[in-house]
Amino acid sequence: MRPHCTLHVCVLLAAILAGTAAPASVSNHDAAELKSRLTPVGAERGGNADGTIPAWTGGVTAAPGYVSGAPRPDPFSADKPLFSITAHNFRDYEDKLPEGAKALFAKYPDYAMNIYPSHRSAAAPDWVYENVFRNAIRAHAAPEGIAYGVEDAVGGIPFPIPKNGFEAMWNHLLAFWGAAREVSVSTYVVPLGGAAEKTSTYKEVADFPYYYQGATPDSFGAYYFKTLHLAVAPPARAGEGYLNWQPINIRRGNFTAWRLVPGEHRVRKAPGISYDVPDIDSAGFVSLDEYYNFFGGLDRYDFKLVGKKEMYIPYNNNRLYARPVNEVLGRTHANPEDLRYELHRVWVVDGTLAPGAHDIVAHRRLYLDEDSWMAVYSDSWDDAGRLWKFGQATMYLMPDVPAIIVGSQFVYDLQLGGYAYSFAFNGEAAYRVTAPHPATLFTPDSLSARSVR
How are beta strands 83-86 and 375-381 bridged, if at all? Predict the structure, then answer.
């Protein structure tokens, strides 16, 4: 694997090891690459040498006939698979596969990946691109260190020409989902050899103050993401509520969360969405920092930017969301016929525990799509060096925004067997990108008032 950042061959290694970095703004000369050789978010504008990855020409920014609030159609429904990777031939493609996928091929004879033509469909509004360009020459690590926060960035990824793994991970955390959303999502668990079980359904209202159009680095506040969950199933949990705030600087702002349980009639403090706290909805398969393949604080790990490579990744999976869940979820893994994979370039980021840090995942590897900066895969190892978990996004295309997002996620336990399917909106209300909500919505008082049976 060859590192790709030829513009920046001098990495501040000592700063990375310490979880800190010098101000990371690039020169105006280097930033100009975002308007020529690179796309507005820092991906390679050109295709690959053999044409299997096309050039980026602006992404998909139109959805003819789409009605707001309706399920988004699959713009590539006419495509046919080019070939399939199976348990019999996966060794021929292993240089383009994550470790977790290779483990599934080795474990399950019927596991497969259907490979389709590649479409570089990722896009964002022009105002986001303008912010990314400004961020490139002004964004930098917080004084406390890059592991703890970033400053002078807003409305776009902060580091389109990353110098280290922490900058790449901040791009993932601050990738574009829209300014706000409303969605109804469910979590399903498939234990080893068992049947799929829905463990929760909740309505989510979420805002990304970092992406409020017209915001400045000083105006969006101390929290880049706020979310309110209102449980509707199972019946025993209907009326539960959860409120979470994600800080842009974890030394100055805490991961702050509150929970309301019906019958208690008051709001209690709760774990924020970060670190290795078990997700109560996923029966032990998922920790809170595995949302979106990685979420929350970066400070427990030393993140290294390994480089860029071509991989077969889940992409443009709108068809998946039209499928009934009982078809998608097989007894040992997702139904291969419902998933689409394409060849794309990804940034590879390796995270090992920082000195003195503790986490149930001792080593994790993230694969970030070059066109969106979202993590499409995660490989996780335990403290004995055994490959333990494998997470994969599905990548949901929203041309009307425009954006492509992580979408629903699978997390496999490769040691015990079984898996979880989370943030699933198959058969639920459509994923809606909305205008920002009133700030008063994301308060403990609002949680208490809205979470009533």
Answer: unpaired
Record the tokens describing residue 78, joined without a space. Answer: 């006419």
- Split at pLDDT 50, 70, 90, the class of 1 is very low
Phi-psi region of 237 (alpha: psi -120 to 50; beta: other; left: phi over 0): alpha
Judged against a pLDDT cut of 90, whether residue 16 lies above it is answered with no
- In DSSP terms, 336 is beta-bridged to none
Whether the CB-CB separation of 310 and 367 falls below 8 Å is answered with: no
Provide the mean pLDDT of the chain.
93
Tell me how far apart the alpha carbons of residues 202 and 273 are, in angstroms, rounded to a whole number.
16
Which amino acid is it at 425? F
Quote the Cα angle for 156-185-447, to 5°.
80
With contact defined as beta carbons under 8 Å apart, do 21 and 166 qualify? Answer: yes
Q: Read off the pLDDT of each residue in 116-144 and give the average, rounded to a whole number.
A: 98
pLDDT digits (tens, 9 = 90+) for 385-439: 999 999 999 999 999 999 999 999 999 999 999 999 999 999 877 899 999 999 9
CB 327 within 8 A of CB 380: no
Looking at 103-107, 112-116, 185-189, 236-240, which range is the least confident one? 236-240
pLDDT digits 0-9 by tens, 263-299: 887 899 999 999 999 999 999 999 999 999 999 999 9
Within 8 A by CB and 6+ apart from 37, the residues are 44, 45, 46
CB 61 within 8 A of CB 402: yes
Instruction: Look at residues 388, 396, 364 and name the one whose alpha carbon lies nearest to residue 378.
Output: 364
